[in-house]
Structures are given as structure tokens and as C-alpha cells.
Amino acid sequence: MKLVLIAPMNGGKGSLARGITEKYGIPGISTGDLLRAEIANNTKLGKSAKEYMDGGKLVPDELVIKMLFERIGAVDCKNGFILDGFPRTLAQAKALEDVTKIDAVVHLDVPDWLVKARAEGRETCTADACGKIWSKRYEGYKPGICGDCGAVTKKRGDDKDPASVQKRLDEYHHQSGSVLKYYRDRGVLFTTKVETMDVVPAETFKIVDDGCLRKLGGRFGK
Ligand code: AMP
User: Fold this and answer.
1) Which residues have a Cβ under 8 Å from the Cβ of 172 and sit 6 or more positions away?
2) Cβ of 58 less than 6 Å from ligand 1
3) Catalytic residue among 23, 94, 116, 156
């Protein structure tokens, strides 16, 4: 099962991807996470990407495409994968289609006000084994500490500054329209609206699973 998730930042892609990985046993791949790992490891790619990411801009297509293709060529992707944050541009979508067929594209349609409200409170657990994303409004939220595993939580650099959030949102709207149309025209797009501040990942997962994934699961196996 090869899936693409499309949503603005703070739209719930990460939680949805984790739910799909748990049920269908296919890895979630976030290009944002891959890029942040490159930055943390101080690689050549990381150094180039940091400039763009800090400015709320997209990293150039050729860099992200090369990085992503290496990742989906790994052995754990042989039964499929869930892409979170890729493709973000039409050029990326076309490049992906040249190397593999995408079975479904799940689009979480989240209004701008909700994206901004969620960005204000978002903290991510720093423990690799957990990685839970917290919002101020979640039950069990504690500032700076993961309510699940007790590790330190951090705000992401690009969530701290409202101007950067707005820039990423503008970029998202600018780029996602053509990508969504591309997949709609191919008949693989599944859109669901997310309208509440209190995100309930299990509910979003159920809507997507019932409306789209279980059909694919039957057709393609786990
Ligand atoms: P994310 O964690 O998906 O919100 O991504 C964080 C940042 O990484 C984005 O704002 C971009 O600067 C960069 N990025 C992630 N995925 C892509 C992509 N597919 N194309 C270009 N830039 C990306």
C-alpha cells in the first residue's frame, strides 16, 4: 500500500501516519523529519536545507526528491510506505509517479485559523521511541514534559514565529492546489475535513480507514 498524506502543518498528518503504520505495518516517511535529521547530523544536505526551512520556504525539489528516493528504496519499504510532506510540488508528484504508482492520496482539509491555533501550542516529545506531538489542549499536557513517557518536549523552531507559520501556510496553499488537482484527476484523492481544535487522532484515523484504506488493504494486503 503506497500512500501520500497531504495537509498543512499542524494538520494531523503525523498522528494519522502513526495510526496507519500501527494497523498496516508500513513505514511512515516524513520528509520534514528526514531533513531535520540531516540538519542534526550536520550533513551537506542539512546545511543547504536549513536556510530554506528556517525561512519558512520549501527546500528545492532536486534535493528533496533525491533524499526521498533513497529512503523509499530501502528494504522496509518493499510492501509500501506512507509519505508525509511529500510531494509538496507538482514536479515532486510527477517525479514520484515516474518511479512508482501511488494507491491513494489522503488529504486532510484543515482551515487556516485551526492551523495557526495549533501551532501556538505544539510541542514534540524528544524521545525517539515516543515522538508524540502535544498541543496545549490535549488531556495530560504538561509544558516541556511528555505526558506519555516523561521525556523532554520541544517546540519546533519553525513553529515559534507566527510570521514563519503564515509563510509556510501561504506556501502550502500556493503549492498544494496543483498537487491535489494532479491526484484528483487520477482518481486517487480522498479528502476529509478537520474542523475541531481538539484533535482526536483516533477519529480522523477511523474516517480515513473506513473511507479509503480498508478497501486498499483488501486489495493489496498488509
Ligand atoms: P514538515 O515537517 O513536513 O512541516 O516540513 C518542515 C519543512 O521542511 C518545510 O517547511 C520545508 O521547508 C521542508 N520540507 C519538508 N518536506 C518538503 C518537501 N517535500 N519539499 C520541500 N521542502 C520540504
Assistant:
1) 8, 9, 88
2) yes
3) 156
> How many angstroms separate the CA atoms of 68 and 27, rounded?
13
At 105, which helix (H) or strand (E)? strand 104-109
Q: How far is the CA of 221 from the centre of ligand 1 (A)?
A: 30
Q: What is the pLDDT of residues 39-91, one digit of tens each?
A: 999 999 999 999 998 887 889 999 999 999 999 999 999 989 999 989 999 99
Q: Where are the domains positioned within the chain? A: 2-110+164-219
Query: Could you tell me the distance, in angstroms and rounded to a whole number, from the CA of residue 166 to the centre of ligand 1?
Result: 14
Is residue 168 flagged as an active site residue?
yes
Whole-number Cα distances in Å, 43 to 64, 129, 195: 14, 23, 39
Distance 218 CA to ligand 1 centre (A): 32
- pLDDT tens, 172-205? 898 899 999 999 999 999 999 888 766 667 888 8
> Does ligand 1 come within 6 angstroms of the Cβ of 65?
no
Active site residue 186: no
Max Cα separation, the chain? 46
C-alpha distances in angstroms, 102 versus 87, 114, 160, 186, 214?
Answer: 11, 29, 34, 10, 16
Class of domain 2-110+164-219 (CATH, top level): alpha beta
Catalytic residue among 36, 71, 118, 168: 168
